[in-house]
Design brief:
CATH superfamily of one domain: FAD/NAD(P)-binding domain
Largest sheet: 7 strands, mixed
Shape: globular
Number of helices: 10
Strand order of the largest sheet: 8-7-17-18-19-16-20
């Protein structure tokens, strides 16, 4: 079987290596960049490993995925961390994340206000759960958390049109009950279940190292500087930017569907639906500034500050200093001239899928149709889901088993 894989990020690299493990040698990977890794790439800046797609880490809760990746970068090259993330509130107070389990760290009068607001939220007063994201935030968390943190932060992440977003993706958010919030305030300590990455691995080489090694193991199969521009599902042919065409028995797409200039072989109505898919662009800056905190990363809810997340290198890479500053492209104009000078900046054109209301329907229709043509969508962009890298690796491993 001749398999064509589009994209050499975690999805494409895992699938390629898994195929190699299974004795399949007839596969080709097209990668538009000069190196592999996608959003998980690392570059060295004066000896400092900088993750140019923003910070990523290996969740420790999936032993099958971890064991597979440890084949390429052995476990003794990784350090285990317990999650310590924090929130910079609009008034300057810094508390732990998730906010519902850490309002006990706020001033006492603020705690009372937040608890009163949560107690009146729709989820605690018998109101049915709404389908709109903004309405859900008020329904689940009450007015204070909605307006002080959730809405300003998500606006900085996804843009001003939060009303276009659905609620189907909220499994990614921590689910802390009012009772657990109250208990955390009474006990003055975290109470409840940690969100994802409660325990994770990171390496002194930067997260991109494992993907670089995976790419090295199948280097002969990867065509770099080769951007896929057109895909024809009827003939299972992809045309690259240089005009070269590649045909295959099976195509696995891990790049954004909206990145294709043309998608052939699908109904016009479906093509129009695919054009509705939205994503955000995020700039990552490596700056010399420091904050006095033991947090590995920090969410910023202050709408006056352009960035939405900071990563403190000293708390991930002992002996190094500096921060990674993430800012949505549309908010870069809020920086004053000369503010936040960087040693390196990188614009990730495709950073996060936007969870619009119609997206599940569109992707279900697209992926169902494409599979009938032996064209598969895989990973964050092939499925247009905000999959973490460990989830993507697991999906790629299962798809390899399905294909062979």
């Amino acid at each position: 079987m001749n398999i064509l894989i589009l994209g050499a990020g975690p999805a494409g690299l895992t699938l390629g290596n898994r195929l190699k493990d299974m004795g399949v040698d007839t596969f080709t990977i097209l990668e538009k960049e000069k190196e592999a890794g996608g959003l998980c790439r690392t570059v060295m800046v004066d000896g400092v490993p900088v993750d140019i797609g923003g910070p990523h880490w290996l969740d420790a809760q999936n032993p099958e995925v971890c064991s597979y990746l440890f084949r390429f970068l052995p476990k003794d090259n990784w350090t285990t961390f317990e999650r310590n993330s924090k929130i910079m509130m609009p008034d300057g107070q810094i508390i732990g994340s998730p906010i519902e389990a850490n309002i006990w760290q706020l001033k006492r009068e603020d705690q009372v206000d937040y608890l009163e607001s949560i107690s009146k939220a729709g989820c605690n007063t018998g109101v049915p759960m709404p389908e709109d994201f903004v309405d859900w935030v008020y329904w689940k968390l009450g007015n204070r958390i909605a307006e002080d943190y959730m809405l300003p932060y998500n606006t900085k992440m996804y843009g001003d049109n939060l009303s276009e977003m659905g609620t189907y993706w909220l499994y990614k958010l921590p689910d802390v009950s009012f009772r657990e919030t109250l208990m955390s305030c009474l006990n003055r300590g975290f109470y409840g279940k940690q969100p994802c990455h409660a325990s994770f691995y990171y390496t002194k080489y930067g997260y991109g190292e494992v993907w670089k090694r995976m790419a090295d193991s199948i280097d002969a199969h990867i065509h770099y500087n080769c951007a896929a521009e057109t895909i024809d599902m009827d003939t299972r042919t992809v045309t690259a930017a240089d005009g070269t065409s590649y045909s295959a028995d099976v195509i696995v797409n891990t790049i954004p569907w909206t990145a294709f200039k043309t998608i052939k072989g699908i109904p016009e109505e479906l093509r129009q639906k695919v054009s509705e898919l939205k994503s955000t662009s995020v700039e990552v800056r490596f700056v010399d500034k420091e904050l006095e905190t033991d947090a590995q990363w920090m969410y910023c809810a202050n709408p006056k500050l352009p960035f939405h997340r900071l990563t403190l290198l000293k708390n991930l890479l002992p002996g190094f200093h500096g921060m990674l500053v993430e800012t949505q492209k549309e908010r870069l104009g809020l920086y004053k001239e000369g503010e936040c000078p960087s040693r390196l900046s990188y614009m990730n054109e495709y950073a996060y899928p936007v969870h619009t209301v119609r997206k599940p329907q569109i992707m279900s229709e697209l992926l169902t149709y494409s599979r009938k043509k032996n064209v598969y969508g895989l990973g964050r962009w092939g499925e247009h889901q905000q999959h973490n890298s460990d989830v993507t690796v697991g999906l790629a491993m299962r798809l390899a088993d399905e294909l062979i």
